Amino acid sequence: MFHLIVATFVLMSSAVISAEQISLTIELKDNAAWCFMHEFERSEPYIFTYKVIRGGNKDIDVSLISPNGRIIYKEMRRQEDRLKINSSSGVYKFCFSNEFSSLTHKIVFFSIQGEEIDNLAVEMGIKKPSAPTSAESSCNIVHESMTKVVNHQKNYRLREAVGRHTAETLNTHVLWWSLGLTSIICVASISQVLILKTFFTEKLTSLKPGDNPQFGFPRH
């Protein structure tokens, strides 16, 4: 029975995590901008992180606008960053811009999550018990551990995606460089053969009557 209660709480906590923690991956075309608006219902610190996974120099313009229209964060051509937001209740706007690029698209990952892991009861909209039972304490421990695992796996997948893209790009560059060197070597080899062939090719001139065809000298 206890294991069933724990499993139920874990499933419910997973649903709450997916609802409270926001993680998105977007694609920005060249000369494009995109904004995401999120309403914070509670005044508490949040962590905003972003990272450019692929595209060009992996840089982007990022700005964060508070509910009263004040720009509280703005960075130009940044690859990644981690920002703590002491938010108040209201709608915040997170904007990403690739307007400075006219050729490459950008793939950007960003997430918004609370700095501290909330109690299960708080996340479910229930008043936090002053004296939790052993089952509730165990469920909270499992919830915190699962949240840390989810965050760790998210960061690992992000690093893996960046590393895979870097490896694919490097592999493409090495392939084209190898093809270029192979072409140069082939052209140089053929050119050397043709040049050497001209050195050893006997040029026959027209012989006059009475000339010695063996040595090419006239008879006296």
From TrEMBL:
<keyword id="KW-0472">Membrane</keyword>
<dbReference type="Pfam" id="PF01105">
    <property type="entry name" value="EMP24_GP25L"/>
</dbReference>
<comment type="similarity">
    <text>Belongs to the EMP24/GP25L family.</text>
</comment>
<dbReference type="InterPro" id="IPR009038">
    <property type="entry name" value="GOLD_dom"/>
</dbReference>
<dbReference type="GO" id="GO:0012505">
    <property type="term" value="C:endomembrane system"/>
</dbReference>
<feature type="transmembrane region" description="Helical">
    <location>
        <begin position="174"/>
        <end position="196"/>
    </location>
</feature>
<keyword id="KW-0732">Signal</keyword>
<dbReference type="InterPro" id="IPR036598">
    <property type="entry name" value="GOLD_dom_sf"/>
</dbReference>
<keyword id="KW-1133">Transmembrane helix</keyword>
<feature type="signal peptide">
    <location>
        <begin position="1"/>
        <end position="19"/>
    </location>
</feature>
<dbReference type="InterPro" id="IPR015720">
    <property type="entry name" value="Emp24-like"/>
</dbReference>
<protein>
    <recommendedName>
        <fullName>GOLD domain-containing protein</fullName>
    </recommendedName>
</protein>
<dbReference type="GO" id="GO:0016020">
    <property type="term" value="C:membrane"/>
</dbReference>
<feature type="domain" description="GOLD">
    <location>
        <begin position="33"/>
        <end position="114"/>
    </location>
</feature>
<keyword id="KW-0812">Transmembrane</keyword>
